[in-house]
Specification:
By secondary structure, the protein is an all-alpha fold. It contains ten helices and no strands. It folds into two domains: about 55 residues, Arc Repressor Mutant, subunit A, CATH 1.10.10; about 130 residues, Tetracycline Repressor, domain 2 (Orthogonal Bundle), CATH 1.10.357. GO terms for molecular function: DNA binding.
């Protein structure tokens, strides 16, 4: 059952993704949620608190910590699983990402929240690549590999988001599989 807070958060995410954070008013959010503006303020006090709660709900870091705790230490299989999970999180959070892209103002607090997940994910990836280097599987700089892997994955997500509107028919899992094979072959000592 959807609570009043759920309705408000869902309405806020929809409007933020359509118009951007700064362009949306609490009055619009309340109307979209089917509640009074006073109800919105009782639950969240202000728009910024509402955004923080919405962001916390949609960005899910514990899933990735568990993923990294259960790795096989097989470079290609691990990167395929990591990439697939990352693409899944990006797709589930595309409204938050679109909202960020539509936000015209730079807000340091806002930017800090939005960069929390990618930074944590980069650290997990760096640690993984460091361990793979210690195991003699790769020699490259772990942080550089992590940034490259994240950047390419975000590019894949963004391309599929944009291209899906242009009837892009390539299967995402095929793209992930091919990308991971190429990336793995490029960094692996066992070529």
């Amino acid at each position: 059952m959807c609570t009043t807070e759920d309705k408000i958060i869902d309405a806020a995410i929809v409007l933020f993704s359509q118009k951007g954070y700064t362009a949306v008013t609490t009055k619009e959010i309340a109307k979209e949620a089917g509640v009074s503006e006073m109800t919105l303020f009782r639950h969240f006090e202000n728009k910024h608190n509402l955004f923080e709660r919405a962001f916390d709900r949609f960005v899910f870091t514990p899933k990735f910590i568990a993923l990294f705790e259960n790795l096989e230490w097989n470079l290609e299989r691990d990167l395929f699983n990591i990439c697939s999970s990352y693409q899944d999180v990006l797709r589930k959070n595309q409204k938050i990402i679109l909202m960020h892209l539509k936000n015209d103002e730079f807000n340091p607090q806002f930017e800090k929240m939005l960069s929390k997940f990618p930074n944590e994910f980069k650290n997990l990836l760096s640690s993984y690549f460091e361990e793979m280097r210690n195991r003699g599987v790769i020699v490259e700089n772990p942080e550089t590999l992590a940034v490259s892997f994240l950047a390419t994955n975000f590019g894949l997500f963004f391309t599929s988001l944009v291209m899906s509107k242009l009837t892009f028919n390539t299967d995402l899992q095929t793209c992930i599989s091919n990308y991971v094979k190429i990336f793995t072959k490029g960094i692996s000592l066992q070529k």
